[in-house]
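FAQ: What does the model actually see?

It sees only this:
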Amino acid sequence: MKAYRVCNADAGSISPSVARCFLRQHDKKIQTYKMKEEFTCLFFLIMFLFSTKTFSQSRLGVMLGGGVDYYYGEMNDRVMTDPNLLRGYGNIGLLYRISPHFEAWLNYMHGTLAGDDQYAIAYEARNRNLNFNSTLDEVALMIGFKPLGESRGNKRHIIPYLFAGVGGFHFDPKTTLNGETIALHDIGTEGQYISSDGDNYPKPYSLYALSFPAGIGVEIKLSRAFALRVEAANHFTLTDYLDDVSNAYPDSTALASTPNGAVAVLLSNRQKEGDFPEKGMKRGNPGSRDSYMHIGVSILFTPVNSNSSAPSSGKKKKKNHCPAYH
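And it is asked to produce this:
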């Protein structure tokens, strides 16, 4: 099913707001297509640059990989996440070796995240009966540290490393209702669109947030030019709305009066037992922000210095004391 954003609870006629909503969705589809096209062009541009002598230096490398990711939040209360919540991701990155012990890389990651109360340990969470899926697009700058450092030649084939960084990401939690996929941000399940000066309801949350990845990995040398990198990292974030759940239940009558009130009431409370909870009752945990984890494998391509195989000119060259990263 294709995702749509509910713009009016009354589906009897196409209102101007519904028309504008469909136009926004059409524009977003065009933007998504353009992003994919730009990403493909960027990848081939990087590969072209690395094929030239200018960029054929062993300090630079390009990475391509993928793996599994999963989220921690209100809809996942397990330390070891349920296998049903595992999703996939792909990544591409540009790496620069600063020294034998330090390196930096810019990484783009595209994947999905999911949460579902049916896999929770606590009964209260299972009875809450909420679920979500979200796309994830993150750009992050990482700094890596290799305690053992790089070695000259190919003497060291397995090199562990630690890394941390800062990034920004886009998310968009969705759920299904009667077979249709609905974007939760526009619904306001915790009263974000209730217009009342006397009530302290949260404002609509941003679909963009900061992330702070931190993890460990190991680099396995396959040849002078190629290496296999296996890593795992947790991405701490500054949002508690990856899953659209953070605070408390709103007043059901006030929620029903919002632009998407009928749908908002149904998606705010999906409990298997009991009526709509009273206003202010706990729905999430605002004191704990959401995060996500990735475990994956990447291939690192580091072009061999083209000058190393160049014929000698007969003149004695000045010795280069810079560290080699072969």
